[in-house]
User: Which sequence fits this backbone?
């Protein structure tokens, strides 16, 4: 079957900066962020919505960037893990929590965990351990066994309260 | 859609279609994105029940006050659908039109006797949920039709409900699940009952015979046991997979049915046991 490729021009705001690009309709948002914009903090794991590594915020909601086409982000606001830290040399309390409590080993899954947690903690700043585990059930980590991740979240909560 | 028929696919939340495309299991020649159609995203009251636009995100349904008030079964089942990141994007209409037998919403739709509103160039029609799901990933939707809304009828008085499922991990596909709606008459006998199972066949499985056993009876544990036995052994047809064998799925159905009926009848007659 002949493949028809259509291109579209889109304007997307990512981490506060508006990018305009001409892209193929079939391009995934995750590949757009990594290859077109060079924002390689968003990781691509399973590419079918199971692992959570590619989680980003779309208009403030955590979504899988591998399950969206980049053209669908036209006119919307995106935040990736690169937008988390307030400036060079400073980390977001969530990142500090993960660092200090050893919430990562290889770090591949970490951007997805951080972007899942950001809106979760904004909505629920004092979650129980079960709520934390449930919130993270859509993110896979093969190194930590999750125990340190839960501790990292608790530490981050304590830091955010200060 | 009228022009391209089967070669075109409607793109709703994309939480099933895009993974299928990523794996090249689906290779539609054309995609029609419904996400920019704001008119398909709404939740409103309708005759004491609800009307929900097909493109309403599952997250919105999950958190909606009207849904909690008018359709407690739907409200109870929403958090079981996949993970929050999926519900943030996934839509109620997308899940229903996809008709995955392991999904929650098709079973809920049948249990609540939802009505599906479709639209095409030929006009509009309403399809009862019981006639909408035709089999594995197959619905009564024609290639040129779009599912635009669902209506959730008001529950009659003295009606109880329950949704229960067993999954290996929260958010995973359930190994077995059941949605039940029961109505008592004024004397406390069962007037009507529905038991609908997910991941129990090639679509939502409506256990009509088992539900009939409840009719006219006084609810109680020994009755639930008999009904659960009938539904789990004679009516459902689970396929089994790497996570759960057929016999384990039947076992889960039996246990979940008893628990769900207990909860539903308690809700139908609060104050009694």
Assistant:
């Amino acid at each position: 079957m002949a493949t028809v490729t259509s291109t579209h021009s889109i304007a997307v705001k990512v981490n506060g900066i508006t990018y305009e690009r001409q892209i193929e309709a079939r391009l995934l948002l995750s590949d757009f962020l990594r290859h077109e914009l060079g924002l390689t903090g968003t990781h691509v794991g399973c590419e079918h919505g199971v692992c959570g590594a590619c989680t980003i915020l779309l208009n403030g909601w955590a979504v899988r960037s591998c399950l969206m086409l980049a053209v669908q982000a036209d006119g919307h606001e995106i935040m990736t893990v690169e937008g988390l830290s307030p400036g060079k040399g400073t980390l977001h309390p969530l990142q500090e929590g993960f660092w200090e409590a050893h919430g990562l080993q290889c770090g591949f899954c970490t951007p997805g965990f951080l972007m899942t947690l950001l809106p979760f903690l904004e909505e629920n700043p004092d979650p129980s351990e079960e709520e934390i585990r449930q919130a993270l059930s859509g993110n896979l980590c093969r190194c930590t066994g999750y125990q340190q991740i839960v501790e990292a979240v608790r530490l981050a909560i304590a830091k955010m309260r200060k | 859609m009228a022009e391209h028929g089967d070669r075109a696919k409607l793109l709703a939340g994309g939480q099933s279609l895009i993974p299928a495309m990523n794996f090249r299991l689906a290779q539609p020649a054309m995609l029609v994105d419904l996400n920019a159609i704001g008119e398909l995203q709404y939740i409103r009251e309708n005759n004491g029940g609800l009307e929900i636009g097909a493109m309403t995100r599952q997250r919105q349904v999950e958190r909606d006050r009207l849904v909690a008030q008018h359709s407690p079964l739907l409200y109870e089942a929403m958090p079981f659908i996949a993970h929050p990141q999926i519900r943030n994007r996934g839509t109620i209409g997308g899940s229903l039109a996809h008709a995955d037998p392991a999904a929650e919403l098709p079973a809920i739709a049948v249990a609540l006797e939802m009505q599906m509103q479709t639209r095409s160039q030929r006009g509009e029609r309403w399809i009862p949920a019981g006639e909408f799901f035709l089999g594995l990933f197959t619905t009564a939707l024609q290639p040129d039709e779009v599912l635009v809304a669902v209506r959730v009828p008001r529950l009659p008085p003295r009606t109880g409900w329950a949704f229960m499922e067993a999954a290996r991990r929260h958010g995973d596909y359930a190994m077995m699940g059941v949605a039940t709606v029961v109505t008592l008459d004024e004397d406390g006998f069962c007037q009507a009952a529905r038991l609908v199972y997910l991941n129990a066949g090639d679509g939502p499985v409506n256990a009509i015979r088992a539900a009939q056993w409840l009719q006219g009876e006084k609810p109680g544990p020994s009755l639930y046991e008999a009904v659960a036995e009938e539904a789990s052994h004679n009516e459902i047809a689970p396929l089994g997979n790497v996570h759960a064998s057929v016999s384990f799925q039947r076992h889960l159905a039996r246990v979940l049915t008893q628990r769900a009926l207990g909860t539903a009848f308690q809700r139908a007659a609060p104050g009694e046991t």
